[in-house]
């Protein structure tokens, strides 16, 4: 089997490449900058909005759509007709109206052989706090929001299983093993760094300025909702990979110890 991996320089894609190589699959990557491409794979330079050359002759695609909107996705997917597609989606696809929902629909329109990995949140999202954590204080909004952040290696393992076993037509909810408050996540980053970290609640107006209006408009109401209504914890990682999802603490230790 030959698999095209998009986002191969990113959080999950790099591990998907490694996992597929270990499984004996031939791997091609689509990258904007070949200097950043992983070693030992076929490299095609290009943009995900125009993947025809990269998709030529492959059997399967690990698909990222790294944009806020689904504009242009139908055109991009024309070159992936009837191929196996494993799409890194988000829990937000559930309601159908989000960009992830639109991308899922576009994928279903070009192939029956799809698997959707709907992530709640990646542990790597917290990397944005690390510089602050090193000073001893993380200042951010909604410290009591509870998130079930998932290790990027678990997402990648799910993807590799989707390519090497039969998971066609399956939608998985991909989460960590528990929902932790953001305050607790910051503390665990502190443990891994070897320095105590305290949380300072950031005023919303300041957060909007820092995050930018477009991202803040989507993210802040969602984080606010997670104070009363934590992100769900799914057993799909355990069911598909055969081991429990890696805890956030393990992710932090791997990154910072
Ligand atoms: N972060 C989360 O919590 C979360 C939750 C649910 C779903 N997701 C989905 O996961 C995706 C990946 O998120 P991430 O935060 O982990 O990012 P990431 O995979 O670490 O980074 C994005 C990747 O996409 C590549 N890329 C960006 N624009 C491209 C373009 N125009 N053409 C080709 N490649 C391009 C980047 O390559 P370069 O090296 O060229 O920049 C990089 O490899 C998101 O787009 C989102 O849809 C994320």
UniProtKB/TrEMBL annotation:
NAD(P)-binding domain: residues covered: 7-165
InterPro entries reported for this sequence: Ergot_Alk_Oxidoreductase (IPR051604), NAD(P)-bd_dom (IPR016040), NAD(P)-bd_dom_sf (IPR036291)
Name of the protein in its database record: NAD(P)H-binding protein
Record organism: Amycolatopsis nalaikhensis
